[in-house]
Amino acid sequence: MGKITTRMGDGFPVEMSESQLMGDLEEGTENAAECGEIPTLSKEELQYLFGLFTAPYRVVGVEPGHEVVLSYDGAPLKMMRTAIDVHRLQASQIYEKLLGADTLELGHVDYSYKPVKPIVSMEQTVLEQVLMATHAPLFYGAMPNLGLYTQPDGPFPNPSELLAMGKIGDVQESYENAVEAAVKDIVFVAGAMVKSGADGINLDTVGAAGDADFLAGLKATEILNEKYPGICIELGMAGEFVLGMHGDLTYQGERLAGMYAHDQVRMAEKAGVTIFGPVANVKTNSSCPWNLARVITFTKACCEVANIPVHANMGMGVGGVPMTNHPPVDITSRASAAMVEICRLDGL
Amino acid sequence: MAISHAIASGMGGMRAAGDLVARMQMTRGMKINDAKAYVADKLSVSVSDLSDPVVMMEVREDLDIGSLSPLPGCTKGIEAKIRIAKVLDIDINCVQRLKGKGLI
What we know:
Largest interface: A-B, 60 and 46 residues
Shape of chain A: globular
Number of strands of chain A: 9
Radius of gyration of chain A: 20 Å
Strand content of chain A: 5-15%
Structural class of chain A: alpha/beta
Structural class of chain B: mainly alpha
Order of helices and strands of chain B: HHHHHH
Oligomer: heterodimer
Number of helices of chain B: 6
Largest sheet of chain B: none
Strand order of the largest sheet of chain A: 3-4-5-6-9
Helix content of chain A: 40-55%
Shape of chain B: globular
Distance between the termini of chain A: 33 Å
């Protein structure tokens, strides 16, 4: 076989030999195994990936019968981002009727719970209208986004500034206060959406501000489950491991900082999450084979311990999809098929 | 990107039975194989039919649970969800809300 055309993590095309391809696959899985202290992929699994990348087809897919459920983050906002002037109601109809969406999601353009709070009644009305006109289950989604709770955007001292001054205790106190405020906002907004008829709540990009952000998502889930028994909560992560911005935060006795997906999902289950969304990041200056082998190693370890459905994050820059606004179908379809087939995902 | 995933590994949403399988994950926390088996049983079809848009178009029209190109008189939107709740034997939040208002 001649040169194999694939892509780098930023999406740009690259050619490699068969030995380079297998070398990248092996290095990718070894990197994940070392970082997460988890098993590498088997020879058979690497061979499957090798076959996927050497297949001369532009688009590939899972075997018939292995299809999974798709959920989304910020779905109607993608229409806004691409300057398509449709209301979120029409965006939802386009998703379910033209894009093959298994689930729908409504979200505010700011996509964080805090800014939705003062306009929650407006959002509820839109949600109720979307529910009247659509068929697929509808999430209301937003991020905990703890960054909005610290100065200059919020009430609490800025941890980054405090950290530079060496005020570790104050940093931790600021994050702890932000957690409590974020939990109140998430519960307020999510509760309103449940009362208006939402089928589920999507806590998206959880952990973006580190361990405190993750804790806010877990605590909010716990409270929502108590208030609304049977509620569906999808919790999708922001990154492949939890940054220890606070460092000492725990959930049910376990330190959150440094957790990878296979530990994150255990915390999510304890909190009462219905669907968990693990993330594994893409390194832009490594090849897509390297990245995909690495991502699958992390995600497979998560799926193996999960007792709840797992919908892996597979947007731009995560899940083996290149870090570009316009992911090419060749690599996206390969990432999609490989993640489902090897990890035995429930969705993505 | 959404289209790439839908083609490579998605169930097809309401083109097939993806929305129904999703509901079982969301309301019962079912893993994918259990959710598919449950829906297939309720619809009296095989699991492989669930991702087939041609088979499912007929099934959806027969059960009147919403379809891509609904004919006049067919259920649409929340009307279809009232039927979906019955067919799948689940509570759908917005349908329960209508019941709470005494509308159905």
